[in-house]
Amino acid sequence: MAEKSIVFFDIDGTLLDHDKKLPVTAKKSIENLKEKGHEVAIATGRAPFMFADLREELEINTFVSYNGQYVVLNGRVLYKNPLDQQALHTLTELAVSNNHPIVYMDHEDMKANVAHHDYIVESIDSLKIGHFPSHDPLYHQEREIYQSLLFLKDKEEAIYEEQYKKFDFIRWHPLSVDVIPAGGSKAIGIEIITRELGIAKENQYAFGDGLNDIEMLSQITNSVAMGNAHDKAKEAARYITNDVDEDGILHGLKLVGLLK
Predict the structure, then answer these.
(1) Coil, helix or strand for 59?
(2) Catalytic residue among 10, 106, 209, 213
């Protein structure tokens, strides 16, 4: 067999189709990769509890979650990079004054600082994860928070970007942005895993479609953007495959030579 490779897959719009379902050909492709002896991992902006069922279905125990802030290799936590607590506290105060709700997320759960808000409902519902944040405005105190969701309209995040240089703000929904530690990315998590496994750059592959995949797609040697990917993600990738609904994973793995 050829030298072992590792393939990282984003979830939404990459592994899961536009209806948040796993295409049959994608599942079969991952099974085939494993049969050939390759490592398969997930690289996502989601929290670990948001894709536990998918990991179980695909039998994947290695993942980069929270856009690189919580990294697990074969079930073992390899790296953690929580948000700065004091900066998160003052950001919360500013958000409350602007009527911008926040959801706090650790590795086990997520809690909102308000009892109800339409922006939270619409954004979280779009993920179709069957999990909704309950109300706990103090959840971020005295625990490690790896990502927060700030709910606001496009461009309203500018005031936060100006004041909070310790954080990066990445829009994932018309009504919400991810708040992660500045400089954090899936690419960093991938580097930590591949270094631990000793897998050379030429044997690293990544599939993605969103703005939070740009660093990953630009830094991984064999990167593949989905046909449905954001234009900037396509520009960052070495290859472009079909739409996720058109056997994009299978076609992409053939494109890079991992499957026939």
Answers:
(1) coil
(2) 10
Contacts of residue 53, defined as CB under 8 A and 6 or more positions apart, other chains included, come to none
Cβ burial, residue 100 (10 Å; 0-12/13-18/19+): buried
Residues with Cβ within 8 Å of residue 44, at least 6 apart in sequence: 10, 11, 12, 51, 63, 64, 65, 67, 186
> pLDDT for 12-31, tens place per residue?
999 999 999 999 999 999 99
Low-confidence ranges of the chain (pLDDT < 50): 1
Asked if the structure places residue 260 within a domain, the reply is no
pTM: 0.88
Q: Is 10 a catalytic residue?
A: yes
- Are residues 105 and 70 located together in one domain of the fold? no
Per-residue pLDDT tens digits for 126-183: 988 888 999 999 999 989 999 999 999 999 999 999 999 999 998 889 999 999 999 9
Strands across the sheet with 167-173, in order? Answer: 134-135, 110-112, 102-105, 147-151, 176-181, 167-173
Assess whether 72 and 189 both reside in one domain: yes
Helices (H) and strands (E) in the chain, counts: 9, 14
